[in-house]
Specification:
Elements (H helix, E strand, L loop, with lengths): L1 E5 L3 H13 L3 E5 L2 H9 L5 E4 L8 H9 L6 E5 L4 H9 L4 E4 L4 H16 L10 E4 L2 E4 L4 E4 L2 E3 L3 H12 L5 E2 H9 L8 H14 L9 E4 L3 E4 L4
Parallel strand pairs: 1-2, 1-3, 3-4, 4-5
Antiparallel strand pairs: 6-7, 7-8, 8-9, 10-12, 11-12
Amino acid sequence: MRILLVEDDIEISRMLRDYLSVENYEVVCAGDGEAARVRFDSGSYDIVLLDLMLPKVGGMDVMKYIRQASTVPIIIISAKDTDSDKTLGLGLGADDYITKPFSVTEVLARIKANIRRSTEYAGTRKEPEQLAAGSLVMDLTTHTVRKAGTGIELTAKEFDILKLLLQNPKKVYTKAQIYSLIWNDAYMGDENAVNVHISRLRNKIEDNPREPRYVITVWGIGYKLGDVL
């Protein structure tokens, strides 16, 4: 597995590179946002670890740049720990958010979880396996989503949330259940991650996100798949 590590703190970058290399990951480092864009364009990666406070080009701009071309999982690693920072980062396309200071074992666990979710559909099957609702079609073999024949680019977590709802069309999921199933982590009462990803998913698949038909809110409980014909 190949990791793009974007971090301007040399000691943190070296620590993560050395630790992850021992765990058999190939780590490519970039010390500023400009170098990060060059490294991203010149290679293929399974995951990106991204600091937000970078010289030359900021981390948020780097993430926007990556998201224009790829759905590779992005984990933000930042000293910015306010809810607004996390919400902004997730809203712009990050799949996970780790605040500094952190433990390297936590970073490794998050990397494994995000790579596992993004690659679990990579196995080949003789017959395509599809899930559908209305004009929305999800192909689990190619890991793609189309609406009325037009492709929709989803991040790994957006894809997993939609897949969960499509596979269980009659079930209502609480935010705690969605977080536990998609993030593979204990729910600590922080609704921001779920709210942001649901909002982003709606913006991509709904005709009118303000009046969703696919991802329906069940007030006081959570979310379910709408009865779309």
